[in-house]
Amino acid sequence: MIRLQDVSKVYRTDRIETTALDAISVTIEDGAFVSIMGPSGCGKSTLLNVMGLLDAPTGGTVSLDGAPIRGYRDRDVAALRNAKVGFVFQSFHLIGDLTVADNVEIPLLYRTLGSAERKKRVAQALDRVGLTSRRHHFPTQLSGGQQQRVAIARAIVGQPKLLLADEPTGNLDSQMGDEIMAVLHELNSQGTTVVMVTHDPRLADTTHRTIRLFDGRQVQ
Amino acid sequence: MGSTLKIALKVLLRRKFFTFVSLFAVAFTLLVLLVSAAMLDEIFGPNGPEDRPDRTLVVLKAESSGKESRRTGWAGYRLLSRTLPDMPGVERSTIFAEPRQLTTYHEGSKITCTTRRTDAAFWKVFRFDFVEGGPYGAEDEAQALPVAVLNVSTRDRFFGPGSAVGKTLELDGRRLRVVGVVRDVPSLRFLTTADIWLPTSLSRSDAYKKELVGDFAGVMILAPGTRAPDVSAEFQRRLAAVPIDDSRFDTLTASAVPLFGAVASFFFFEQLDSKGPGVVIGVLWLMALLFMAIPALNLVNLNLSRILERASEIGVRKSFGATSSALVRQFLLENIILAILGGLHAAIAAAVVLALLNRSGLIPYSSLSLNFRVLGWGTLLTLVFGIVSGVLPAWRMSRLHPVGALQGRFE
Questions:
Q1: Alpha carbons B104 and B170: distance in angstroms, whole number
Q2: Do A98 and B3 touch (CB under 8 A)?
Q3: Closest-CA residue of chain A to B411
Q4: Helical H runs in B306-323?
Q5: Measured CA distances, B310 to A38, A136, A138, B307, B314 (Å)
Q6: Do A81 and B14 touch (CB under 8 A)?
Q7: Chain A residue whose CA is closest to B3
Q8: H or E element at residue A63
Q9: pTM
Q10: Could you tell me which residue, A76 or B305, shows the higher pLDDT?
């Protein structure tokens, strides 16, 4: 599904140079559920962003579905993200002015799909996370767990093969966190590759494999 | 598109005070521009007696100068009568005076009116809308018959509504017989407007016939296919042959210029007199853009400050496949919607302002209105305003790095 070879990411300012990722080589197979763990600031989110083509590596190669990403042209990576990757963020990042259905529809707006088809897919995605009855609500009218489920529906509405979740339970209590994990596991069992950043070893233990980072280096 | 519109309206409603300030600035700016456009339409639009602007050349200003003296003003009758008649390539030409105010008494009431002396050809060069009677002819002018054409308002002031042809009125010590009544011509049509038109030959003295610089203008209607520069060049040749019999002066200058430039130089900048419509419209656009600049910059600033509150949305949209250009389109559209809302408010306010202006009599005989041309210009100005004030913020927003935007960092 996704392969990183000697990937490094260095942030440079006038005075200092910070290495966020150092020679990371990882292969994530189709259908895997992989967690990324490590202390704060070790580069977990950076690694996830590089995998999701939100950030370009300073060195090394990222390959998605066997095709290496070159150039990182805005139009090209935007199209790849739209077609193949779904994101779930710790703080949900739902747009407060839009209803649940409108939020979920966002990835489809950047495809050539008719309105009826978009509505159908939004309904299917909301059904998968059990929020059909909340489609006309606004994010602030939902609990944290429900908001994260909306975010998951948004991430999967475009039927991406890869779901990247950055601490998806980080802002939720344990019960809601478990609910979200159940949804992610269900998606994974249906064929979606999931990569999740987490601090929680209990959650990491439920995944197929864990990548451990320390100071930007892969330690396991 | 639906989501974009929804977002745009929500964004506007979210910050009501800022939206009010922005809308007020946009609406007020566009109101001023719409009222200005209505006035420009009254000045330049093809809706007055000057109905063939593309074939019209005007000789308006003249200057005679010498080593120690200089005289400038409208052209003199002698200059025009020596240069305009039988000009090759010209279908018709007319010589007429600038308007002059006269006061008279009619049945015990004091009436002040604007008069204009013209030749008979004036009525063929310009197309007036006669409601009764007709113009005076060459015979009336040759014999200096005391005849006059009135506009409807002046007829009503002298005689009340109803036919006035054949009736007489006292003006400047003469009793004039009304031969025709025309619809009012807005005072902004400075070449043709008047309350009363009368033959040039009715002047009290013949002194005007000797003047090179005076109070007359000449207008030529070119024959179809004639090039204006050729006629202007011939005019210059003829002008060079006009004898200057005043020893104080040795040089006489004047020019035959397109109607558009002549009108523009009268109302705006003298330098525009020899310019065609393209340059004049360009200058007017420049003035409009400069006027729009301050509120546009204000809106740019407001929009830039809103990047902070839109950062998460930008990050999300980019994460899910929005390209920078898609975001530019979205933010531009939002700004254009704001401008269109402002434009709608401005159009309503402009209709009220123009109606009040027409009713106030501040601009005599004005018929300012939001016709299709004015609304067309208004729409164009609105879109320009929306785009100009939206491009920079849209570009800045679209360039945000998705990761930075999601984290609230702006690099």
A1: 7
A2: yes
A3: A13
A4: 307-319
A5: 31, 22, 17, 5, 6
A6: no
A7: A102
A8: strand A59-64
A9: 0.70
A10: A76
